[in-house]
Amino acid sequence: MPPDPTDWESDEVGYGILVPDSPTAPDTVEYVWTKEKATGSALPEPVRRLLTARPKTVLLYWNPLHGNRFVRRYFDSDPPHTSDLRIGLSQFGTDRKQLPRFVLIAASPTTIPWGVQYSLALRHAVGRLPFDDNQGAAYVSAMLDGAGWATSPPTASNVAVWTVNHGTRDITHLMQNVLTKPLIEKCEGTIEKLTVVDGADATTAGLVSALASKPTLLVTSSHGATPLDERELVRDLGLPVARNHTPVDIDALVESVPGGAVWFAQACCSAGSSRESSYAALLEEGTMARLIVDTVAGLTSSVSPAPLALLTRQIPVRAVFGHVEPTFDWTLRDPGTKQRFGHDIVSGLTSQLHSGQPLGLILENYYSGVGSLVSAWATRSDEFQDSHDREILAEMTRLRLTAWDRQSLVLLGDPTVRIPKLAEFDR
Questions:
Q1: Average pLDDT of the residues in 15-35
Q2: In angstroms, what CA-CA distances link 68 with 38, 88, 114, 121, 281?
Q3: How far is CA 158 from CA 59, 82, 298, in A?
Q4: Hey, how many other C-beta atoms are within 10 angstroms of the C-beta on 365?
């Protein structure tokens, strides 16, 4: 019998924590075995607590020499043993030459880059607690003890949707028609309480009102705040932009989202920013899109303020799904055929999430689409080398940008966490 892919405690599936490696000296790039690395004894307290509570946890290390290709295991053995294992090709499991299917990155994106998470997500169930210190303590407590999640959890059969539409020529119109409307239709008749806020009500007050119902799942679709003023950018990055073109109030948002909820934020930079933008070389200089990408990249790699605050509250959320960098309409609809591509996200947030799937698996089908896009890009690249057709080059740009956009949808939170199962979606 094949292993149950949701059973992260199984030795054939496995759970691991990825942490940053440290060189032998600050001015070197030499990374070697130490007893502390092998046991994790010098790691931040929340990570050590997870290692103790989950004794089968595989401790993984990343260093800059590995890029997005490898992670390392240091074994507490005599003699000492070290293994570098390939991301995306290693067998799942907990044995020496295996990598766990479930991986929690316990580090900020300045310490372990977003690109490592992108690479892992193509095959692994991966999430991130973006802290390099003890800021994750409340989350780990909720995760292990159920503090705040088990004592007064949101109702499983409760979904809130807040969606902005600025008209047919705006990407928010596409977001609404490809993501939020199909999700609402799938929830109707199945979800006990469904709250929808749209039109003129898609404001901060409307969002706070929707959150008063204590939903387990909050879905927002809108532009994400990317102000060009640096101080505003640091404060507002990725916040949902309301119908009146102003960011929602971050304090009201953070105060209102119920503990233990899952927030899916369809918006530019809703998860954070990346110092090394995937898009800069693909966007024409002088365009507004390129200006926004360059401005956001100037922040270095970061997590947006709202998810960070929600994950560090006394009673944190279970998770935030959001985008690193801007998101584009090509990811939602093929420009040639007009085919829409929101089905994997809608299914993930309904059938998968509400049937009790671990959060790290609910968008598995969405990430698998990256491989098809990259394969199509490679085929068109060969054709371009022969013909130098500018139309082929334009399609290559679209394919690459769409692949990067898909992989930059990330999970902030532990990938093994679930919400209470809803029988109607248990299939």
A1: 90
A2: 22, 10, 9, 11, 19
A3: 36, 47, 39
A4: 14
Q: Using the 8-state DSSP alphabet, how is residue 239 labeled?
A: P
Give the pLDDT mean for 236-249. 95
Token pair of 63 as six digits = 């260093």
User: Which residues share a beta bridge with 272?
Assistant: 303, 324
pLDDT of residue 427: 45
Beta bridge partner(s), residue 2: none
Amino acid letter, residue 225 = A
Say how far residue 403 (Cα) sits from the centre of its chain: 15
* CA 196/CA 423 separation, integer angstroms: 22
Helix, strand, coil shares, percent, the chain, to 5: 35, 20, 45
pLDDT tens for 299-343 read 678 899 999 999 999 999 999 999 997 777 888 888 888 999 999
3-state secondary structure of 98: strand
**Spatial separation of the C-alpha atoms in residues 309 and 257, rounded to whole Å:** 11
CATH of domain 152-412: 3.40.50
Mean of per-residue pLDDT scores for the chain: 90
User: Token pair for residue 79?
Assistant: 């003699």
Burial class from Cβ neighbours inside 10 Å (0-12, 13-18, 19+) for residue 129 reads buried
Decide: helix, strand or coil at residue 59. Answer: strand
Tell me how many degrees the CA angle 397-400-401 measures, rounded to the nearest 5: 80
Q: What are phi and psi of 81, to 5 degrees?
A: -135, 140
Residues in the chain: 427
Q: Which distant-in-sequence residues (6+ apart) come within 8 Å of 181 by Cβ?
A: none
Apex 63 CA angle, 294 and 65, nearest 5: 80
Q: What is the residue-wise DSSP string for 123-145?
A: TSEEEEE--SSSTTHHHHHHHHH
Q: Read off the pLDDT of each residue in 290-296 and give the average, rounded to a whole number.
A: 63
Distance CA 148, CA 141 (A): 9
Its sign, for the CA torsion 50, 52, 58, 62, is positive
The CATH 3.40.50 domain(s) of the chain lie at 152-412
C-alpha 174/C-alpha 165 separation (Å) is: 8
Six-digit token pair at 152?
């007064």
Question: Cβ contacts of residue 234 below 8 Å, gap of 6+?
Answer: 299, 305
